[in-house]
Amino acid sequence: MFSLISIFYRSLLSELRFIRKSRFELSMLFILPFVSIFLIWTIFTNSQIRQVPIGVFDFDNTELSRKLIMISDSSPSVKIAKKEQNITALESYFQKREIYGALIIEKGFAKDIQSLKQTGVKIIVNSQFSTHSSVIESALTQAVRNLSYGIKIKILQKNGYLEKQALDHIMPIIPNIRIAFNQSLNYQKYLATVLIPSLLHILITVIGASSCGRHFSENSLDTWLFSLGKRNLNFFERLFALLGKLTPAMIVFSIWGGLTLLFVAIDDLPPLNSLLITFGSYWIFVLISLWLGSIFAILTMSKRIAFSFAGLLTVPAFSYSGITYPIFSMPDLAQIISKIMPLTYYLQIQRSQMQMHQDFHNALPNLYILMVITLIMALVATASVRFALNHKEKWEVK
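Predicted structure:
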C-alpha cells in the first residue's frame, strides 16, 4: 500500500511541475474554463427573451386594426420594429434579420368584424430561429385573442349580457396553467447551467488526452513510468500512476463545477442531500472525462489523434442529452448513443436535484451508472498502458 501511495505522490508532483511550466495546460485549466463560464453566464443575464423585433403590415388602417397593433406592441415579448404598407419589403427584412416575425392585417379586417363575419390576420415567423418564433407566435396570438374577446364581450353586452355573463359565455372553460419547475422561466438557470458542464466536458477530455498524449509525442512514456520508482509497474501501480497524473486537473475542474453549482443554488437553495449528490456526481463526471481523454491518447498513441477523438465525442454530447430535444423522440440509434454519453446521466442528476428538488434517491440510479462507467474506463486506461509499451514503434513522436 505504501508503494502505491508513493507512486501516486511522485506522479502527482511530476504533473504539477509540468503544469507550472506549460502555458497550454495552465490556459486549459484556468483561463479557458473561466472565459467559458463567464461568457455563457453573461449571455443569459437577461433571464427571459424580450423585445423580439417584428414587422406590421396594416392594409386596413382602421381603428380596430390600430387597436390590434397597440395590443401587440404592449407585449413585453415583442417590439414593432417596422411598419410598412409594401408587402414586398417583408422578405428583405427577414433576410437582413431586421425582424423575426410579421403581423399582416388584410384590408376589410374591421368591415368583416362589424358585419359579424369571421376574419383573420396572418402571423409569419422565421422558423429558422425556433425560440424567437415561439415567443413571437405566443405574443401575437395572445394579442389577437384579447382583441377578439373584447369584441365578443361588447356584442354580448349590447344584447343584454352583464360583463361577467359575457365572459362566462365566451370562455366556459378556463385553463389553469401552472409551471411546475423553473417558474420564473429563467433561461440563465435553465440553459446556462447545463451548457457550462457541456463545455467543461470538452475541456476536461482534452486535458486528459494532453496529459497522457504528450508522453507519446515526447517518446517518454517508459521514462515517466521508470521515474516513479520501478522499472516494471504492475497493474495497480500503473493505475495509481495515472490517478496521480490526472489529480491536478480533477481538483481544478471540480472547483469550477462547484462554483457553477453554487451559482445555480444561490437563489433557490436545494436540500443539502441534493447539493451533495449533485457535486459528487459532477466529481465522478470529471473523472470520466479525464479517463476518456487518457484512453484516446493511450490507445491511439498519438496526442494529435486523441484531440480529434476528444472533440468528436464530446462536442455533440449536449445534443444527445435530451435537454434541447427529447430522447424518446430520437431515432433508435440516437437513443442508444444518448445512453452511452456520460453527460446525459450527469445532466439528468443536476436537473432533478438542483432545479426540480426531487428526493435524492431518484438520482441514485444515474449515479450508479456514472460510477460503473468510471470503473470501466479506469480499468481500460490502465490496461492500455501495457499495450502501448509493447508497441513503441507506433508512437507518434514529434
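Summary: DSSP finds 15 helices and four strands in the chain.
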